[in-house]
Target: Catalase
Amino acid sequence: MSETRRDSATKDEKDQQLERHRVDAAGELTTSTGTRVDDTDNSLSAGGRGPTLMEDFHFREKLTHFDHERIPERVVHARGAGAYGYFQVYEPLSRYTRAHFLNDPSLRTPVFVRFSTVAGSRGSADTVRDVRGFATKFYTQEGNYDLVGNNIPVFFIQDGIKFPDFVHSVKPEPHNEIPQAQSAHDTLWDFVQLQPETMHMMMWVMSDRALPRSYRMMQGFGVHTFRFVNANGEGTFVKFHWTPKLGTHSLVWDETQKIGGKDPDYNRRDLWDAIERGQYPEWELGVQLVPESDEHRFDFDLLDPTKILPEEQVPVTPIGRMVLNRNPDNFFAETEQIAFHTANVVPGIDFTNDPLLQARNFSYLDTQLIRLGGPNFQQLPVNRPVADVQDNQRDGYGQHYVHRGRTSYFKNSLAGGCPYLAGEDTAFKHYQERVDGQKIRHRSDSFQDHYTQATLFYNSLANWERAHISAAFQFELGKVEHRHVREGVVAHLNHVDHDLAVDVANGIGVDPPERAVANHGRSSPAVSQATFPGTVYSRQVAVLVADGVRAAEVTALRSALAEHGALADVLGPRDGTVRTDDGSNFEVDRAMSTVASVLYDAIVVPGGADNATALSGDGLALNFITEAFKHHKPIAAMNEGVDVLGRAPLPSLRLANSGDDGVRTDQGVITNRGSDDQGLRQTFIETLARHRVWDREVASVPA
Ligand code: HDE
Model:
């Protein structure tokens, strides 16, 4: 059955609940109390040129409401985008957890997911270097469960009491509020150099993980070790992993910065468009399970959120699948007002003593009280559980329920004892962990190793991934004004990997350090993005055309891509049509000047003699090709189109020559002259599926 947005047959419980709150524009204009309004353009005044009268209640209401339209943005994760969908478990997990939604494979639990950047304001660009939030609200029949994760499996700090310090350091600096949504500034790196527990996370943030190609192409992690609890009250440690069906893929740094200007909504738009097209993003949920008895089996502390549990030690078991298939109707009402809280749990899922998680369990509720203006934010449509709510909470700003009766206390006899206490089988039961200790302010010794896993991460990466990390450190530290801060970070890097530290030091003009420790040589290949499978599904290809294009080549390419779910945008010198080589008209999708190479995954130049001549003299078209090459994107050219590549400032490549009949591929540049169009299309699609051509030599390309 197709999963269309408004097909009532497929409406899940959450969608049906929201339906009661949806409002469509219709009928006559009114005030907010329903009085009909026949003029909303002219305020009531004493004469045509006289003062506005207080009596104009419509004017006052309109302006007053407008004046109050903004709420505080989230203190972190202010910029985001979200969508609805469902989660379905594969097999019952009763051995580990009693959570109902993880035990009934026939059940589709409605979800809302909000993706976000962390440091930037609500209006900042999507493609900045940053961690991405990946927060999922499961509207389960036992209440809302929030899995509030990130796309990086570790965190900057170990104890939540450091969170304000960390966030103050990464946010724009307080004296001039510069820079927006950037980590490349003195205060962040000063924090880092004085807080070595950040080093593992900083390696991830300097990696390509911080530049996702799409929200649909990033992993998600619960970060903390949580606890599953089964019906017998037995606990199992659990780490959550979301794995995207499309693979995990990133942009390149230069590209992200250009997209920031060309389309600051790049990731938001991508998510929205994919869902509108019916190309629903999908993730598999996996878990790493550790028996309680193995708590101390590892050379790091399971409670330390700056550590991963390497997949090679404890494999990830897939347990279910999530599909996002419906865009919100209203950004503010839904995506902005959704309120996540790590302490929103259901029976069968519990916390551990991870000190970061413990702090979060305080902070998220607290933050919603100020952000959403009072204690009734759970009544906002997007936040309402589909499970029945029977609390004795009353009153407060924006109370929406009309509670009837005389009682709002427990115990009562006047309302027949309702609501009464839940039974053993339905109530949340806190895991009965034995705790005893002295009250101390002291970080456990088991939290003190800050470098081993930073090195492990670095060792696990492909050469191109490592090169990106080094370049990122050089860029970021190159913006830092204080020399001692640069030196401090290099000193920590020297404990991660000496060669990396030397490379970075040389790039930022500080003295390369002496070798401090030997690299332990261990790795965890699962963390490398080079290991992720790819697909062309939903990839965007730009086809550059001008008058004289051989339209048959474009049409054949477009249908070959469509067969695999990829999209071709035909870009012309102007909107409308171009003439083809046989004199007919061919419709273009967009004018080349309204988009940019950075918004596409690959570029194709079709043949046609006049087409090639026109594109060869078009600086914009040549810029598309040059930038795409610089950003490691597949490029294909057919017949005369091959000549256009020769006009772009690329390194010398083995391109198809006239008289050749066959496909040539050199560094992901695929060309043919002659009849083997199908071979070209196939090679192009295979190359596109690999996302980028990382072994390409791009240093000399001026873009
Ligand atoms: Fe958050 N975090 N956080 N965080 N966080 C918030 O809650 C906080 C942490 C994460 O799309 C805030 O509603 C503290 C880790 C996401 O609405 C706030 C600490 C992880 C989102 C808050 C952390 C996250 C938030 C701001 C350290 C990954 C966006 C607005 C103890 C596992 C949720 C809000 C959304 C948002 C506090 C650390 C992820 C202030 C105190 C670790 C995805 O409550």
